[in-house]
Amino acid sequence: MRSPEPPPPWVFWVAFPTLWLTGSLIIANVGGWAALARRFRLHEPLPSGRWRFQSAGMRWTTRYGACLTVAANHLGLYLSVFPLFRLGHPPLFIPWTEISLAVVDMWGFPTKGRRRGRWRFELVEFRLGRELQIPLRVRPKLADRLKAAAGPAWPAEPMR
Question: Domains of the chain (ranges plus CATH)?
């Protein structure tokens, strides 16, 4: 019995980009980025003071690992994805009036009244869009930078 022949090289050059782009669109829809883009799409460049290669989590355990550019000022929060992952992820601007805060553990559960265990750590969760309430979980260090950039426009602090 003969072994099957490998597929021609063009199959890779068609299949890989197709899977890559399809995956990007699926992540944008599952994580909530696409829903946010319908309302909060940014139409001008991101402001200067920005932090590149940041990580965050969104709904349904969607993770953006070291591929976000995040910026903030007194107007709101700016988010952009690294260009290789940009399909379905246009840059966003969410005003601070559309954002609320919570302190959660790494799985998104509120930490109020509970101690952090050995394998648990706290994250700051931004709930984006007053009606949408799409979570964006970031490390406290990034949240502190955003708070400093936002100044008095920063949303009310959650109860710890």
Answer: 29-153 (2.30.29)
Please give the model's pTM, rounded to 2 decimal places.
Answer: 0.76
> Can you tell me the distance from the alpha carbon of 22 to that of 26, in angstroms, rounded to the nearest whole number?
6
Could you read off the pLDDT of 50-104 as tens digits, one per residue?
888 998 988 888 888 888 999 999 889 999 998 877 778 899 999 999 998 876 6
C-alpha distances in angstroms, 45 versus 41, 80, 84?
Answer: 11, 10, 18
DSSP secondary structure, 27-76, as one string: HHHHHTHHHHHHHHB--SPPPSSEEEEEEEE-GGG-EEEEEEEEEE-SSE
Sequence-distant (6+) residues with CB within 8 A of 133 are: 100, 127
| Residue that has been written with the tokens 């019995």 in this structure | 1
The CA distance from 88 to 26, in Å, is 8
Q: Extract the tokens encoding 71.
A: 């910026």
